[in-house]
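Structure first, sequence second, as always.
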């Protein structure tokens, strides 16, 4: 909040202007969800009415769009740290995204990505770290890895069969 001297309180307009400035600064590093922005503004000492006004303003400008944010989050995760639908859903919930929006973004993910093939690809990359270990230990560790990455049990089972069969042939 702006410091205006010991006896003068900032006006509501000044508070909103300061909150908008802080919000734009927060958006400099990466896109944010509306919930992340509200939490940030709350940490900066702004009350709910100011938070709502600033978030609405940012949405009107197109700087905050939870669906677009979710789609970009999923796309970035698929590129940098591939994971399954369960983990993506969990992370988006942590970002404060509403379930309806998560469902829409996940639907697009399902159409664009073969999750079974993604699990196989990750398993092929990861199995190299278990070379020389007993097959049952490698299977257990690889299954745990894929589970933590949010893949469904049937995709994990299929990936293990594919990758461990490939390894056995080599």
């Amino acid at each position: 909040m702006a410091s205006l001297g010991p006896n003068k309180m900032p006006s509501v307009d000044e508070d909103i202007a300061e909150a908008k400035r802080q919000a734009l600064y927060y958006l400099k590093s990466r896109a944010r969800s509306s919930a992340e922005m509200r939490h940030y503004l709350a940490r900066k000492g702004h009350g709910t009415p100011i938070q709502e006004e600033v978030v609405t303003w940012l949405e009107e400008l197109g700087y905050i769009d939870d669906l677009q944010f979710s789609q970009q989050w999923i796309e970035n995760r698929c590129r940098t740290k591939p994971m399954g639908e369960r983990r993506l859903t969990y992370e988006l919930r942590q970002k404060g995204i509403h379930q309806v929006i998560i469902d829409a973004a996940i639907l697009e993910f399902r159409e664009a990505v073969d999750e079974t093939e993604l699990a196989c690809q990750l398993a092929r990359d990861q199995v190299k770290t278990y070379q020389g270990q007993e097959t049952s230990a490698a299977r257990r560790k690889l299954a745990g890895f894929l589970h933590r990455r949010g893949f469904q049990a049937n995709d994990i089972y299929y990936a293990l069969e594919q990758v461990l069969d490939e390894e056995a042939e080599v």
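Margin note: The longest helix spans residues 153-169.
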